[in-house]
Amino acid sequence: MRVKKSAVLLLCAALLPLSGCSRAEAALPYAHEIEDTVLMGALGVDLKEGAPGRVAVTVSSGGRSGAGDSPGQSPVVLSAQAETVSAACAEMQTFGSDFVFFGDVEHVLVGEEQALTGVMSLLGHMARDPELRLEARLWVIKDGRAGDILFDAASDGGAPDRLTALETDAELAASPAPRTAREVLSDLLDNGCALLPALERRPARTGDGAEGEYTVAGAGYAILRNGALAGWTGEEGALGADLLTGDAPGRILEFAAPSLAQTALRLTEVKTELTPSFTDGVLAGLAVTCRIEAQVAELRGADGLSEEGRIWLEERLAQTGEAAIHTALDLAQTLDADYLHLGRKAALAAPWRKAELETQWKAGFAALPISLTVTGQVARM
Amino acid sequence: MGFFGRKKVEVPPHPRREPRIDLPLTVESVRQVFADCVDFSEREAALGGDPDKLVTLCYISGMVKMERASDYVLRPLAQDTVLSGCGMAQAMERIRKGALYNLGVEKRATMDEAVFDMIGGNCILFFPGEKEVLSFNVGTEEKRSISDPENEPPLKGPRDSFVESVRTNTSLLRRRVRTPDLRIRELLVGRQTVTPVDIVWIEGITNPETVRAVERRVAEIDIDALIATGNLEEYIADDIHTAFPTLAYTERPDRFSAGVVEGRVGLLIDGLPLGWLLPGTLSQFFKTPQDKSQGWMAASALMVLRYLCMLITLFLPAVYIAAVTFHLEMLPTELALSIIAAKQDVPFTTVFEVLLMLVAFEIIQEAGLRLPSSIGQTVSILGGLVVGSAAVEARIVSPAVLIVVAVAGIAGYTMPSQDFAGALRIWRFGLAALASLAGMFGAAIGALLLICHLASLESFGVAYLTPFAANDGEQVEGHAVIRQPLPSVKLRETALKTQNRRNQR
């Protein structure tokens, strides 16, 4: 009986090639010794300079400390050019004996030129590639190239660490929030536009804490429309976007007035309400009400905050918020890109009007009259 | 040696002689049987002191208790004057009916009976001219005293354990299971050892089919010696082509008693301080006697921990190989970087490293087991700590592999059954080898094979994976992974097919 079973098993094994798995390496996963592997942590995609249609892909690993007596390893930065991202990545495997592993890429940087051309092919590659993950954070480089940032950071511990630090800072200081490739892809497919955090390569100044000549800093948001870069929010527009999306708590706003000391306010809560209005079943306008709550984080040159000073701060807070939201809304209407998901929020506010909103929103958003009311409240000390 | 293996050799027949000693039942025959046996002794005694009426007492020194033979057999034999007035047949009948004080006396009519009685510690009284003899139970009771169980230490429960005497073991069982429905049937196994094997069960609870099956399989054992546990286990197990034990054993009478009361059939063997419980199912090998002594929540947590440890000991080396060699994406970046840093300058591949360390672990464990406990501990310390840390410092193995193998090994020690832990160790090698060929795909294939293999096993008609894979379609009573509070477990296991399923009001 056992002989028969073994014979059947052998026969099945012999028939395996008929299933199409004739080559063992095609059927089984590839083995790589981990110590001969370079774990890439950041990937940058740019248009190749002087060669339209070709992409320049730069990848960078993080630096690592050695275990015991063994020395650590400096960050490895590789760059390759090809017609597609996948071809460039494949070419990097030929650069040395080590296996270049993209499964640990946590940050993907897109240069401005590449972003203007479009990011859909990159996102598609990330979705299909067995190693790259859509959970990687996506950044757009304003006025610069992703490769430059990766090469600059190599002398300062590696780009992955720097970008992770930026991500953590963004969570702590409520600066433009990082987005995963999955979120961006989902927004682009659902909404046709998406908001992406922008980075800027600036010359390092004394006191920046950077070791190299350049440093990387947040630069508001990039707005993608139809898969390509459509505009930048700037700092004021970024604040407005954060106020409308509810990501602003934690931000520090500074105010100075001749009668008051220098004051820093920390936003504690932002509550935004959207109310669509209809006339004869036609979308006629949108009322945006925003209430910003803050507390004093720091007072310089004064012992305490007077009631008059508090009221003045509340007014300034409301004015600042209103200006920021105006900028963000104007940008959205100018670009005809509802990157703030106002339509979805309006439908949530008036669910009985959902069907009308869905049909009229896209056509009417660019010219939709929007009224804005912003109030500020500063907690007593 | 042929190309396809060894050539088959004709096995000569091994007929059993019946009767085994084909001689008349006389003193001369006994002398002939025990020729060249220095421990064979005989003594003549005069009935009631009459020198014309001599009887012969035969026994084996060391097997009988001398005081008993002297006080309860020889003394009344010589002092009872009535016996001198009787004929041999009358004297024999009078002695059998109580003229001698000894508790146990039987008539024997064949040499086989008489000889095996002598070997068992009886003394045989020959009456000249008579065809039958009297056999007196005057065996010595020298045996190891009941001590704490060494392999199943009790935390909260009785502290006795089985000993090598089967009769002592049955008494330990009787003291716990006082029902008159407890049945103990004895069979003799082994042509040369003639070892008593006791089958125990409770009439009215245990499935009679299981009892008959156990009895039949034990009766069919025709071997020279029943000395080691394998002499029994490998002959009565349903499938011996498996590393997994299909018979559960214990050295604790309380656990044995609980099993018998649960509806299982027990086996006790003279000379082995263990008791077997049949049928054996997978969940049985995760249970400890403490489970019912602790609160049900704590017991459940520990049970879950044991199952978790089973998965760790089985799959951790395989998953490590798969993750590090094939699927780096499984590892968080920081962990991968730590492993890379630790593996720098190590000359071996990850697969070789893991297999090497697994083998080294087995060697250290085996060396520790074979040596006296004090030296064994030294070997463990030397092997585990000194050699391990030296190997890491010398960059022969990476610390990560050392940790993985040590964690897998320690997790294996949580298994209450050493046999089961041994099976897991064997499969651990197989899974690691499969993972080294095809990563997680290989490990998954290995896991599939393991499940199929376990599902194919049976023990006395009960599926080995009971109650996970088969419980005759009924809800599990009691605990498989989670132990329910005992008052709510009102039925015995369905798979045991007990006659009376209810176990409490």
UniProtKB/TrEMBL annotation, chain B:
**What are the GO BP annotations of this UniProt entry?**
spore germination
CC per GO annotation? membrane
The entry's keywords? Membrane, Transmembrane, Transmembrane helix
Do you know which Pfam families this protein is assigned to? GerA
Looking at the UniProt entry, the stretches that span the membrane are 304-326, 371-390, 396-414, 426-451
> Does Membrane appear among the keywords?
yes
* Location of region: Disordered: 140-161
Give the family from UniProt: Belongs to the GerABKA family.
Name of the protein in question = Spore germination protein GerKA
